[in-house]
Amino acid sequence: MTNPFSPAAARAISGPSWLVKRRVDAAEKLATTAWPSATEEIWRYSRVDDFDPERYHPDPRPTKPETAPGGGPFAAEVGARAGLVVIHNGHVVHRELDDALAAQGVWLGDIADAEEKARERLGTVTDSSSDAFTLLHDGFMTGGACLHVPEGVVIEKPVVVVHWSEGDGAAIFPHTLLIAEPGSEVTLVERAASASAAKGMLVDAVVELLVDDRAHVRYVGVQEHGPQTWQIALQRAHLGREATLRSSAVALGGEYARLRSESILLGEGAESDLLAVYFGDGDQMLDFRTLQEHRAPRTRSDLLFKGAVEDNARSVYSGLVHLLPDADKAKAYQTNRNLVLTEGASAESIPNLIIEANDVQCSHASTVGPIDEDQLYYLETRGIPPEDAERLIILGFFDDVFDRLPVPDLVGSLRRSVIDKLERCTA
Fold first, then answer.
1. Residue 287 within any structural domain of the chain
2. Are the beta carbons of 314 and 346 closer than 8 angstroms?
3. What is the dihedral of CA 105, 107, 112, 113, to 10 degrees?
């Protein structure tokens, strides 16, 4: 069978010459790279052994629609916004940006059309964390969202990016590049979704967050893929001196959905908060691998991931806090909590620490278990029906993460999505 992801296939995809060359170089590296297996620690407990690249195919043809399902409704849920990009099967089909921000030099649009200054930073975050799936992504990405915020510019309202994917057997490669120059400030909200009827779709996504010195970035990623979509995603951030990142992930969809979330604190005084809410039902598997890497002194990171599984769903959390020798006086915290709601569901939680620095504060914690029977009893003795009591406890379990999301207008719709999953389980 013809290799659907050969260098020749990468070369056949249209685009500017610099992007075609980048694709072919990555595809040539991919041709000599072995696919990972579950015997590797970073893929332990995963479904990667079930991955068959011959099930999928890239689509070299540009898409024509001027919108994508869910683009308008989700953007409306975010509330007032500064800009919007809608992407269909990896192709930008709609773009809008506040005129006042454009006048200040903010650039929002397709990576394929980005100015050279932004193109030069494409891949600088992910190249140091490359694996077979990032090479596959780089070999077949057709473009994506690029947001470039100049030095000192503050964007008060969120910028929204909506990714919609569809097509039986399609392999889609969404990419988002955020460049926040020194002293800038921005909130970026992304939603990734795919057709519920699509069969055997692969979404191989990359998000690069470049947070320069004293820049402040708030990022929210919402994943609501269809039930037969495989997602392999990498979100990686580089933080400069006194930079801050507040990153939140909400994962509700997909057949197998993996997110590798990495925060690299490069500059003294950098701070990173990583939050996540995830809920699996049916036969879903939600897979999270995190890295908090401190390379400079007086840095701080805090991670809180909370998840629930029901039916036959599985979740995996494996996280590493790594304090390198130069990270003196760093503070790093990592917490993962899991609720297992029904017999047949399961959750794995593996926090890890590597400490090579002196005079640091560091901790990790994880829990896996059912709903607390004492909490249920307390509510039921006050006249609350058992199913309502369980729902209240689960929503309360997630609330401390929801309350910390940087876009409060989104919380209501995300809580409704969690309630919908609960109601499917009890129906």
1. yes
2. yes
3. -50
Percentages (nearest 5) of helix, strand, coil residues in the chain: 25, 40, 35
Cβ–Cβ under 8 Å, residues 392 and 419: no
- Tell me, yes or no, whether 392 lies in a domain: no
Range of 246's domain?
A: 7-372
* CA atoms in the 13 A half-sphere facing the CB of 250: 27
Q: What is the DSSP letter of 48?
A: G
Q: Which residues contact 362 (CB under 8 A, 6 or more apart)?
A: 321, 323, 330, 331, 332, 333, 353, 355
pLDDT given for residue 151 in this prediction: 98
Phi/psi for 347 (5° steps) reads -140, 140
Residue 200 and residue 221: Cα distance in Å, rounded?
A: 23
Instruction: Say if residue 230's pLDDT is above 70.
Output: yes
Beta-sheet strand order (sheet of 331-340): 91-97, 83-88, 159-165, 185-194, 216-224, 244-251, 271-280, 300-309, 331-340, 361-369
Tokens coding 280: 């699996």
Give me 272's structure tokens: 């990173």
List pLDDT tens digits, range 28-50.
Answer: 999 999 999 999 999 999 999 99
Q: Residue 319: pLDDT above 80?
A: yes
Kindly compute the dihedral angle of the four CA atoms of residues 333, 339, 344, 348, in this order, to the nearest 10 degrees.
0
358 pLDDT more than 60:
yes
Q: How many domains does the chain have?
A: 1
What is the rounded CA–CA span in Å between residue 275 and residue 22? 33
Query: Is the whole-model pTM more than 0.70?
Result: yes
